[in-house]
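ok trying this again, last paste got cut off
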Amino acid sequence: MDTTPATVRVRFFARYAELVGRSEAAVSLALPATVGDVVRRVREEFPGARALPERPLTAVNLRHVKLDAGVQDGDEVAFLPPIAGG
């Protein structure tokens, strides 16, 4: 199966940025790939990222998506912590 290398920009917000120690990062992976693949790669590559949930809320290019959503080279994947409040 052919794979195409891709780089996606990952953004971390609030508590997730604290855990990972940064607010954004570039992650390389082979296409075809899903948001779930990006989550796994982040959890493997970055110290502190193992504390992230295995199924975080995510958005691709500012649209909420499920983990099975596809990603393309140049996409932005955001990890969104649950919002507390009332």
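PB: full thing came through this time. The chain has a mean pLDDT of 94.
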